[in-house]
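Write out this protein's structure.
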Amino acid sequence: MPASLIPGTYNARDVGGAPLESGGAVATGVLLRADALAAVTDEGVRRMQELGVRTVVDLRTTQERTAFPDRHPAGADVLALSVLEGALPVGPGVAPRTEIPGMDAVYALMLEHGGSAFAEIARRVSRTVEGESVLVHCTAGKDRTGVSVALLLEAVGTRRDAVLDDYELSQSQLAGEWAERMIRGMVADGAPDTPQLRILVTETPREVLATALAAVDETHGGAAAYLQAHGLTDEELAALRERLGS
């Protein structure tokens, strides 16, 4: 299991290097993904500065952000884009969740209601210049972050098997200490400790994202068209492909 890219996180990585359908690979140093940044160390903050993080996109809810505020480089532009349907908040003052939805349903709701947020992430990445990166995160860095990153990778022509590989990696990154701590927190807040809860909170079943992307193909003709249907312009899509898909 590779070490997390940013000290103080479990699931931070650069999505660069994934193979493109047209040949070549996704550019490195442009799009980063992570779990919550609340426990980032001083070394982690320095690492983000070295990685050129100029924009941090936080997909968590207001409750999550209040309970566990991020640490990030001074001067970074922080963009709060709550994607509610992917949230399973844990923290002070958060009501317990006793009904645990299936992952397919959660991802379908994210795609139905999160399109403008996902398009805005694509827009921010398209506007970066050499040496700048965008860091996208939620709590685990696997669901809300996973869907948003998958859409961007698909939109620039990344091979689907590589998109699914990147998504699956989060499960091994989060296994162990992080996963057990999250399950304990959910159970303490009133959620039943069931296999369904453990899958939703800690796992990244390949077929779940594959189903979600197939739905995007069916309803919009692909991720690029999906993002454009939610506000991404032709010029921004072209810039995204030039910046990320090189």
